[in-house]
Structure formats: structure tokens, C-alpha cells
Amino acid sequence: MRNRVPEVTLVFWIIKVLSTTTGETFADFLNSTLGFGLTGTTIAMGLLLVALLIAEFSVRRYTPPLFWSVVVVISIFGTLVTDNLTDGLGVPLWISTVVFAVLMGGTFAIWYARERTLSIHSIYTRRREGFYWVVVLFTFALGTAAGDFIGEALGLGYWLSLALFVGLIAAIAVAWRLGLNSVFCFWAAYVLTRPLGASLGDLLSSPKSDGGLGLGTTVTSVTFLVAIVALVIYLTVKVRAERRAAETIEDDLPDLVDAV
């Protein structure tokens, strides 16, 4: 009940994939379709992310609408970070992949050294939540760089890239069921859902002449955002019901103890 992040359920992973797809397509929508440009889009999303993080750290516990708003915006911003390095500064994708992997690994090392755990089930302090969001940002930037490197630099295309990442996540799920460390499996899957979502977004939004389905960034972004909103509403109702039930039990507990 004190945890500042949600429990890991099927809905969690669905929203995560939807948010990564939105991060890919909405960044392109703002950058190209609306003509904000890469720099303008990055500044706007960066400011919005800062505002949302301030709001997130100001609440006492996990709040679905606020939490998932941060995830969606950090997905967009993480995509833009990699795009700026690749398109703006000409940094090769393999270098970006290595750099973000090192930064993420370094954050994990500091997090574990300070807290002695990397489990998201124990994030009930703001310092631990701070480590969590830094890692999440790096996972999105790393996932974008690695996904683009595999899909574009290696020329696998959208369908093969999508199949590859689905297969890798399935392999991690099987390894988890067989006893592999759950914290490692969670973060490995979390990183891989980023290129999975990006491959799905590119497949849906790219023109048919480029191997996509031709839905465009506008339709894809709106569709996935509507789906995210619907699932977040469901989670909000569920969390409120669970908290009301827990509070009822806490209120009744003294009477039960007296009765015993």
C-alpha cells in the first residue's frame, strides 16, 4: 500500500508497450507532422516531464493517472534524446547503445550500493523512486538506440525486428518461470519492451512503400493514447477499491482484537 509504483501485472506490461509505441509515434508526430522540429519538441517534452515529475514526487503514494503520464512523457523524451544524438549530432547508433547501457548499469550500481535492493516492490521512499525514474529514462533511450540499430543499421525491417523482440521477451518470461532472478528478468523485459513498442509503432505508422501499414503517426498515436487512458481509468478504479477495502480492515482491526 505504501509502494510508489504499481504492481507488475498484465495490465502493467500492456500499458508499458502502448506507452513505448506512443513515445515513438508521438515524437515523430510533434517533430514532423506538426513541424515543431527536433529541438523544439525536445524542449517542450523536457519541460513537461519536469513538471510531471515534480507533481509525482509531491504525492504520497502511487497515483495511476499521474504515474502513467510520467511514463508516457518520459518515453517520448527518451526517444528524443536518442534522436538528437543520432540525427542532430551524428552519433552512431551502436555508440548510443553502449553509452546508455553503461549509464543504466552505473545507475543500477549506485542504486544497489545505497539501497541494497533493485526491486520495484520496495520503492516506498522518494530516493528510491528517484533512482527508478533515472533508470526508466535510460531504458527508453537505450531501447530506442538498440531498436533502431537492430531494425535499421542491421536492416532487419519492422516485421523481423518485432518478432525478434517478442521472442526475446518470451525467452525472459520462460527463464523467470524456471527460476532466474526476478529483478533481473523484470528490468531486462522492461528494456526490451522499448524497442518492441518502437518496432510496432514504426510498423503501424510507416508508409506501405517502406514496409509499414500506412496508418500514419496521427492515427497510431491517438489510438494508443485512447487505449492507455482507458486502462489507466480501469487501474484508478481498481486501486481506489483496494485502498478502501484496506482502510476498512484497518478500521475494523481494533474491534476484532478486542473481540478475541
Plain-language structure description:
- The radius of gyration is 20 Å and the shape is globular.
- With 260 residues, it is mainly α.
- The mean pLDDT is 87.
- It is built from eight helices and no strands.
- The protein has helices at 10-33, 37-58, 64-88, 93-115, 126-153, 157-177, 182-205, 216-259.
- 81% of the residues lie in helices and 0% in strands.
- The chain has one domain.
Tell me the domain tally: 1
Find the count of extended strands (DSSP E, 2+ residues): 0
Structural category:
mainly alpha
Strand content: under 5%
Overall 3D shape = globular
| Separate helix tally | 8
Question: What is the percent of helical residues?
Answer: over 70%
Q: What does this entry show, briefly?
A:
The chain has 8 helices and no strands.
Key phrases:
mainly alpha, 8 helices, membrane, transmembrane, Membrane protein, DUF347
Structural topology:
Blueprint: H1 10-33, H2 37-58, H3 64-88, H4 93-115, H5 126-153, H6 157-177, H7 182-205, H8 216-259
Helix pairs in contact: 1-2, 1-3, 1-7, 1-8, 2-3, 3-5, 4-5, 5-6, 5-7, 6-7
